[in-house]
């Protein structure tokens, strides 16, 4: 295990400056070991979904060490974002995630879905088993979120008030169904659905801010946004900052740990340097997540 002590100190100083009891990170990846290896191989090989970018993964430790690193950073709640790239996988992933949450009390019980026969049944099963958050990956799954097959699942999740982190923006590389259009159709039908738009919707930041302003249950996660890495490729238009400030109660800290090409603390620094103030930072890094998940 690499020594992350210096970084833990830097994260602690960030928390202490803001007077935060901890961080709530809604977007971290834990998944079955062989799936995670595959994801890492994908990043290593500069596959097309990364936009051909160099993407050196910073935290390649074993699972127990990765959870220890997050705890060392003072992350009091995190998630196990997992997602299928084909049919027939989601139910198995959900079983793994339920077990992971059971043996990892500070991980929110996460589940996923795919447009396939039986999706409504396994989404209901996951909800009944205590799932508190879903993940949908429109880019990797290459499906239309407005697909007929998903309609009852979205309805069920909207009714239950269970948030869904959804990668629906076109970064780092566009997919067939990414961008604000398909997801706007889902929201038109399920206006109370608690979607958390991953990566602030990059690079379509402003179109996804439009959706958040229109639908009161739409939130955004900060995952990778505003970092040097993202800003070099998909910069946030400065004119969007006041809108970001105004939506301060619906922006949630997300990091993409462990699959990030820079140290975790850089995400926090990137948020701080937006200059939106301490109150905004406290809400984003802790309070909004604590409230949403009743921590
Ligand atoms: Zn992610």
From TrEMBL:
The keyword Hydrolase does not apply. InterPro entries: ACMSD, Amidohydro-rel, Metal_Hydrolase. Pfam families: Amidohydro_2. Residues 24-295 form the Amidohydrolase-related domain. Keywords: Lyase. It comes from the Bacteria. This is Amidohydrolase family protein. It comes from Streptomyces indiaensis. The lineage of its organism: Bacteria, Bacillati, Actinomycetota, Actinomycetes, Kitasatosporales.
């Amino acid at each position: 295990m690499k020594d992350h002590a210096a970084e833990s100190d830097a994260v602690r100083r960030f928390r202490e400056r803001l007077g935060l009891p901890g961080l709530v990170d809604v977007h971290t990846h834990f998944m079955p070991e062989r799936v995670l290896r595959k994801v890492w191989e994908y990043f290593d090989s500069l596959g097309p979904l990364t936009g051909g970018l160099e993407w050196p993964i910073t935290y390649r430790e074993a699972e127990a060490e990765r959870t220890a690193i997050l705890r060392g950073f003072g992350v009091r709640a995190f998630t196990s974002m997992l997602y299928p790239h084909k049919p027939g996988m989601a139910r198995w992933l959900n079983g793994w995630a339920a077990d992971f949450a059971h043996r990892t009390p500070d991980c929110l019980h996460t589940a996923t879905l795919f447009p396939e026969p039986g999706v409504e049944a396994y989404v209901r099963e996951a909800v009944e088993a205590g799932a508190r958050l879903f993940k949908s990956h429109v880019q990797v799954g290459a499906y239309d979120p407005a697909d007929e097959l998903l309609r009852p699942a979205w309805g069920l999740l909207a009714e239950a008030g269970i948030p869904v982190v959804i990668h629906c923006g076109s970064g780092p590389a566009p997919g067939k169904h990414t961008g604000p259009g398909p997801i706007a159709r889902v929201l038109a039908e399920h206006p109370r659905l608690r979607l958390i738009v991953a990566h602030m919707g990059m690079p379509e930041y402003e179109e996804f801010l439009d959706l958040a302003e229109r639908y009161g249950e739409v939130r955004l996660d900060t995952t990778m946004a505003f970092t040097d890495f993202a800003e070099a490729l998909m910069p946030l238009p400065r004119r969007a900052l006041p809108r970001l400030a105004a939506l301060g109660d619906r922006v949630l800290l997300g990091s993409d740990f462990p699959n990030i090409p820079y140290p975790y603390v850089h995400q926090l620094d990137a948020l701080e340097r937006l200059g939106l103030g301490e109150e905004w930072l406290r809400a984003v890094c802790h309070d909004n997540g604590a409230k949403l998940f009743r921590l």
